[in-house]
Design a protein that fits this description.
The complex is a heterodimer of chains A (251) and B (246).
Chain A lengths: L1 E10 L2 E11 L4 E5 L6 H8 L7 E6 L2 E2 L5 H8 L2 E4 L11 H12 L4 H14 L15 H13 L5 E5 L7 H18 L2 E6 L2 H7 L2 E6 L2 E7 L2 H4 L3 H7 L3 H8 L3
Helix pairs in contact in A: 3-4, 3-5, 4-5, 5-6
Chain B lengths: L1 H16 L6 H41 L9 H40 L2 H7 L4 H39 L4 H9 L5 H26 L5 H31 L1
The chains are: A alpha/beta (251), B mainly alpha (246).
The complex binds adenosine-5'-diphosphate (ADP) and magnesium ion.
């Protein structure tokens, strides 16, 4: 479980996060939705400590992460897997080196043990025979899956994904969504996903936080979201023609 | 006012770069890579440019000698001292600022905008140190060699020019090379090279590291990196010359 209490973050004059409080539960896919520029990525990066927050608290299962120094944070960092928006695979390293990297940093495993673990994770995300290839040589969907393999290689308790299916075709997007859902249940992780894709929300979202201009505007389940009478949320959810039709048909 | 902001942030970045590394083995591997990438890969361009510059300096000073009272060996002396004092340190430094500087800024800038730096940080790696320190160390180690090679090859270029064109007799050129040689000039040149090596790597790394945005900004960072490191080289050239030769 991860708890946010009144999180504020500014960059100079730009007040991006304005007091966000919420709870992300274990074994669930927790989604953060909102328009581009609403502060989703900043929120996610603040939760994992890539941005220092200005005010508020971030608590990982009763451990107050936001008040720890870098050394203490390392024990929590070990339990975090993060899938960045573009995958963020290291260009100069092969697929297998990418997945082995966190093991090299955080464990005392031998080269063989690391390779074995990396292969296990690559297999789990259905990547085979690509070990020696470089990120630039594989497709976007494969890059995302390698990034997921790298994120789960340390058996994380907490899994974060920033727009995991942006830039993917709808079919591949569903594959990735389902993979994240399965991993969440398999390893009982506290999973937090940023997205602006309503399909994902309907498909795998357990609980939803809607962020609007850096504030938590609404929260609830993926069923409740369609019934909400919040104006801004409705504008966001029913922005596409397809969703409008679904709404008018009385779902 | 912005200059103070940049100076402060550059200083803080360097503090992060020189923080004690955690896994020295990985650093060692990176340094070897960077020596290859920054040093060995620049050897070709340094040699080509030095040969031609040595030749041109020699020809120009030969053809400008109209007064028969001036001894011909002065051409060799001029070529030698111009190469050692200015060319193989400052001009080579400027050329490397273009080649190596833009390479470093765009590499680190790309890693920033594609969140590879964030990925390193989340794995508990000091990204500044991991990405930048090996480059600085590699350049500090390898650039003095490039400097020496440039001196030798440049002087050789002058010799070849005298042989081919007969602008002055080759033996006079050789005489000039040996005439009143001041060994400290080489030391001076090496000191400049080491300082320039630090500028050429750390300033572009700074610009890359603080890139914000996308591909367009990476391009801008790369341009800025070359401009700022070139200007700093010229500035430090004056300062060091006053300090060391005055
Ligand atoms: N490192 C940063 N420095 C300054 N401003 C930033 C930084 N990261 C994000 N921002 C700003 O924060 C705001 C929210 O961005 P972001 O969280 O990326 O939006 P989203 O992910 O919801 O599309 C934007 O105005 C962006 O310019
Ligand atoms: Mg985003």
């Amino acid at each position: 479980m991860i708890e946010l209490i009144g999180v504020h973050k500014s960059f100079g004059e730009n007040h991006v996060l304005k007091g966000v409080s919420t709870v992300f539960n274990q074994g669930k896919v927790n989604m953060i939705i909102g328009q581009s520029g609403s502060g989703k990525t900043v929120l996610l990066k603040s939760i994992i400590g890539l941005h220092e927050i200005d005010e508020g608290q971030i608590i990982y299962d009763n451990r107050v992460f936001s008040e720890m120094n870098n050394k203490k944070r390392k024990s929590i960092r070990k339990e975090i897997g993060m899938v960045f928006q573009g995958g963020a695979l290291f260009d100069s390293a092969t697929v297998e080196e990418n997945v082995m990297y966190p093991l090299e940093m955080f464990t005392k495993m031998t080269e063989e043990e690391r390779l074995e673990r990396a292969n296990f994770c690559l297999k789990r995300v259905n990547i085979e025979n690509a070990n020696k290839r470089f990120p630039a040589e594989i497709s976007g969907g494969m890059q995302k899956r390698v990034a997921i393999a790298r994120a789960i290689v340390l058996n994380p308790r907490y899994l974060f994904c920033d727009e995991p299916n942006s830039g993917l075709d709808p079919k591949t997007a569903i594959v990735i969504d389902n993979l994240i859902k399965e991993l969440t249940q398999e390893f009982n992780t506290t999973t937090v996903i940023n997205t602006h894709d309503m399909n994902s929300v309907a498909e795998i979202g357990d609980s939803i936080v809607y962020v609007h201009k850096g504030e938590k505007w609404w929260e609830g389940s993926s069923k409740e979201i369609l019934l909400s009478d919040n104006n801004e949320l409705n504008d966001f959810v029913f922005a596409s023609d397809l969703m409008k039709k679904i709404k008018n048909s009385g779902f | 006012m912005r200059i103070f902001f940049h100076f402060g942030r550059y200083y803080l970045l360097l503090a992060k770069v020189f923080a004690r590394p955690e896994k020295t083995k990985i650093y060692f591997r990176q340094i070897i890579r960077e020596i290859d990438k920054l040093g060995i890969n620049s050897l070709g361009i340094v040699i080509i440019i030095s040969v031609f510059m040595g030749a041109v300096i020699t020809l120009q000073s030969s053809y400008n000698l109209e007064n028969p009272m001036i001894p011909l060996y002065l051409v060799g002396l001029t070529a030698r001292d111009s190469m050692i004092l200015e060319f193989s340190s400052t001009i080579v430094g400027l050329i490397l600022a273009g080649k190596v500087g833009s390479n470093i800024a765009s590499e680190i800038g790309t890693m920033r905008v594609t969140e590879q730096i964030d990925a390193l940080e989340i794995m508990g790696v000091n990204s500044a140190s991991y990405l930048i320190l090996p480059k600085i160390i590699a350049a500090l180690l390898i650039n003095p060699f490039l400097n020496i090679i440039s001196m030798i090859v440049g002087i050789l270029g002058g010799y070849i020019a005298t042989v081919i064109t007969g602008a002055i007799p080759a033996p006079d050129y050789i005489d000039g090379l040996q005439y009143s040689f001041i060994p400290f000039y080489v030391t001076y040149s090496l000191i400049k090279t080491v300082i320039f090596a630090f500028i050429i790597t750390s300033v572009p790394a700074y610009h890359g590291y603080y890139t914000f945005g996308g591909a367009l900004e990476v391009g801008k960072s790369s341009t800025k990196a070359v401009v700022y490191s070139s200007v700093l080289i010229l500035l430090f050239n004056v300062l060091l010359t006053q300090l060391l030769l005055a």
